[in-house]
Write a structure and sequence with these properties.
Helices cover 42% and strands 11% of the residues. The protein has 140 residues and is α/β, with parallel strands linked by helices. The chain has a single domain, classed as P-loop containing nucleotide triphosphate hydrolases (Rossmann fold), CATH 3.40.50.300. It has a three-stranded parallel beta sheet with strand order 1-3-2. The protein is globular and about 45 Å long. It starts with 19 loop residues before the first helix and ends in a 16-residue tail after the last helix.
């Protein structure tokens, strides 16, 4: 398992996309809509990309939740409540903000975490996978 403590699935696009940030956020939203629980870790090249992806994801989450709340389906409203934390993780981020990724109380309060990270997390960070989502083959 190449030194990993948890199994992972990696997915790659077959063709280049026009906007990789939009594609990443769209994939995260597909996971959010189809899966009831679990965390998502997205690797991006720069800290600026992480911050922009978080802005885009939070915007899409707000729009989706507004449309779900206007829907008459009670089941949908219960499933898609404000239960997501979009968190950045990169080297220049202050320590106290990096630490939010590791707070077990956030993960245990039915808060899903969408973590947008640079490669700092690839080699030196382990995020608890209790209740974490391991993607299915249908993504991205």
């Amino acid at each position: 398992m190449d030194g990993r403590q948890y199994p992972i699935d990696s997915f790659f696009l077959e063709k280049p996309c026009r906007n990789y940030l939009k594609s990443c956020v769209d994939t995260v939203m597909k996971i959010y809509k189809k899966e009831k629980s679990g965390d998502v870790l997205v690797f991006l090249p720069t800290a600026e990309d992480c911050d922009e992806a978080i802005r885009m994801a939070e915007e899409q989450l707000q729009l989706f939740e507004k449309s779900s709340n206007s829907d008459n389906s009670k089941r949908r409203r219960q499933h898609f409540t404000s239960n997501v934390l979009c968190l950045p993780l990169y080297g220049s981020l202050p320590q106290h903000l990096q630490g939010l990724v590791f707070r077990k109380d956030l993960a245990e309060k039915n808060k899903r975490r969408f973590i947008f990270a640079t490669n700092i997390a690839e080699t030196s960070v382990t995020v608890s996978t209790q209740n974490s989502f391991l993607p299915k083959n249908e993504y991205p």
